[in-house]
């Protein structure tokens, strides 16, 4: 029996509970794509858009390599064969690209709070470790569920890390200096794209700006009613 295996659809291969849980982790790339789309739609931040473009490029490279190498997925002890190629692993490459880029973003690019206090940045290291652990679990799930060999997921993981390093370097040193120029374009203003690179704490900035604007409008409303 030949069956097509979509890149982001988890299929139940193993009958045990652990296998079912690992199958659910295969949906992580899909969840991350939805998160990207949500952030881009509601925040319109140029760096988020650039990060997403990097993941799309990463996926394109994976597709090209798969259809160039044409290495089949493992089929030992299985009744279901897959028509898609397995080298390199798409899930491993996606997750390690995401995990590596996020680690660089959190530990190098993101400036939040007072860096002189170690506890102020402790959450960065915690989130980084959790993301790396998630990438490792998703990678292992592809082997446990017999979608890929060790070599296929290893190549995918290494390639994802390598591409993330390159894309972060390009974003940090080549694209970020262009963000103010891009944000000033008429089309960017029409789409409400913004550059938040120089704002150390975007959440606090948005909160204080919203509070100040709300108080200003409230005072104007009270003034109009008193006249």
What does this structure look like?
- The protein is mostly helical and 227 residues long.
- It has 2 domains: 1-196, Vanadium-containing Chloroperoxidase, domain 1, CATH 1.20.144; 200-226.
- Helix content is 68%, strand content 2%.
- The chain has 9 helices and 2 strands; from the N terminus they run βαααβαααααα.
- The chain has helices spanning 17-25, 28-43, 46-69, 90-109, 122-144, 150-175, 179-183, 186-191, 202-226, and strands spanning 2-3, 81-82.
- The chain has a two-stranded parallel ribbon.
- Helix 1 packs across helix 5 and helix 3 (46-69) packs antiparallel against helix 4 (90-109).
- The longest helix is centred in the C-terminal third of the chain and has 26 residues, at 150-175.
- The protein is elongated.
- It starts with a strand and ends with a helix.
- Mean pLDDT is 80; it is low at 1-14.
- It holds the Pfam family PAP2.
- InterPro entries: Dolichyldiphosphatase_PAP2, PAP2/HPO, PAP2/HPO_sf.
Question: TL;DR of this structure?
Answer:
It catalyses: a di-trans,poly-cis-dolichyl diphosphate + H2O = a di-trans,poly-cis-dolichyl phosphate + phosphate + H(+). This protein is mainly α and 227 residues long. It is 68% helix and 2% strand.
């Amino acid at each position: 029996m030949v069956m097509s295996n979509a890149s982001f659809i988890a299929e139940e291969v193993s009958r045990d509970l652990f296998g079912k849980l690992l199958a659910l982790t295969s949906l992580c790339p899909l969840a991350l794509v939805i998160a990207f789309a949500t952030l881009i739609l509601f925040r319109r931040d140029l760096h988020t858009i650039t990060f997403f473009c990097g993941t799309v490029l990463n996926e394109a490279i994976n597709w090209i390599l798969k259809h160039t190498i044409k290495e089949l997925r493992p089929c030992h002890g299985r009744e279901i064969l897959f028509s898609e190629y397995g080298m390199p692993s798409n899930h491993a490459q996606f997750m390690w690209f995401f995990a590596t880029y996020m680690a660089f973003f959190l530990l190098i690019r993101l400036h939040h709070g007072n860096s002189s206090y170690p506890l102020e940045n402790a959450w960065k290291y915690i989130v980084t470790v959790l993301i790396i652990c998630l990438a490792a679990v998703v990678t292992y799930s592809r082997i446990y569920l017999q979608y890929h060999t060790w070599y296929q997921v290893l190549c995918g993981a290494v390639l994802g890390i390598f591409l993330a390093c390159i894309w972060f370097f390009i974003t940090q040193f080549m694209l970020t200096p262009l963000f103010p120029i891009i944000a000033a374009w008429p089309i960017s203003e029409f789409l409400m794209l913004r550059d938040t690179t120089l704002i150390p704490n975007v959440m606090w900035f948005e909160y204080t700006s919203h509070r100040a604007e709300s108080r200003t409008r409230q005072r104007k409303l009270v003034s109009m009613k008193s006249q």
